[in-house]
Amino acid sequence: MTTSPTVPGSTFVRKDCVVDGRSVPFFRFARLQAQPTLSHGVFTRRGGVSRPPFRSLNVGSRTSDRPSSVRANLERIRRVLGAGELIFLEQAHSRELVSIRRGEADRLREPVEADGLITDTPGLGLVIKQADCQAVILFDPVRRVVANVHCGWRGSVANILGAAVERMKREFGCSPGDLLAAVGPSLGPCCGEFKGYKEIFPRAFRAFMVRPDHFDLWALSGAQLAAAGVNPSSVMFARVCTRCRTDLFFSYRGEGDTGRFATVAMITDFGFRIS
Ligand SMILES: [Zn+2]
């Protein structure tokens, strides 16, 4: 595996792993990578088997891509992370979260409708599929609990990030002040245009309007996490806009009929992780 920073001093680091003789690039947040009981990866659109417009590491099963290609891509991702299995949802832009305790993974064999996964079980790769929406990883290194949350603008309106922190607190005994949070590649303030914002956004979101009709949804997520008790210095941002970087990521706004890329987070057995 090789490592090269995307830009000097960046905390969002590119890596490459060879699977089946083919290089699969992915990114990691440096501070999350330093955690001995967490493995994670922000995968790109590269290194898979799908054909255009899904070229090539598409994980969106509700696209018109071939199901066998999507399965092959997911298997490649599973092998890169060394996950026992991958768990995913029927994402619905909701405020629903699903927690999986040890031995409960079976009930998610058929994906359920929700937008966040939480677990304390090693070996389960929690997958969020995205093409402009955020995937936000929340990790508690004290209780060894991880969440992966799908948050588009509807998720922001519903404050699913606040709901995720609350659920980690209530169900797993996490203290918000212990959490590390990472907001991955997604629609940036450069491209976050919402012409109908007066109808869809609460008035308070106007604090995040950076120019007419444009919103900084990264800053909004940071504010929602802070309001939920997460220390602002513990929140990381990839600061990569998917619409600007369709060479690396799928973008619904940029491309329309396109694939979904994957962000995966997994608790590892104590002391084990891939380098
Ligand atoms: Zn952009």
Structural summary, described in words:
With 275 residues, the protein is an alpha+beta fold. The protein has a single domain (2-267), classed as CNF1/YfiH-like putative cysteine hydrolases. 21% of the residues lie in helices and 28% in strands. It has 7 helices and 15 strands. It is globular, with a radius of gyration of 17 Å. Zinc ion (ZN) is lined by residues 188, 190-191, 241, 243-244. Zinc ion binds next to loops.
Short recap of the structure:
The protein has 275 residues and is an alpha+beta fold. It has seven helices and 15 strands.
Protein structure class: alpha+beta
Terminal-residue CA separation: 8 Å
What is the N-to-C order of secondary-structure elements (H for helix, E for strand)?
Answer: EEEHEHEEEEEEHHEHEEHEHE
Radius of gyration: 17 Å
Enumerate the distinct ligands: zinc ion
Low-confidence region ranges: 1-9
For this entry, give a set of tags:
CNF1/YfiH-like putative cysteine hydrolases; globular; 275 residues; disordered N terminus; binds zinc ion; 28% strand; 15 strands; 6-stranded mixed sheet
Break the fold down into its secondary structure elements and pairings.
Blueprint: E1 2-5, E2 12-19, E3 22-29, H1 30-33, E4 38-43, H2 67-81, E5 85-87, E6 98-100, E7 116-119, E8 124-130, E9 134-140, E10 145-151, H3 153-158, H4 160-172, E11 180-183, H5 197-200, E12 209-211, E13 214-215, H6 217-227, E14 235-237, H7 252-255, E15 261-267
The structure holds zinc ion.
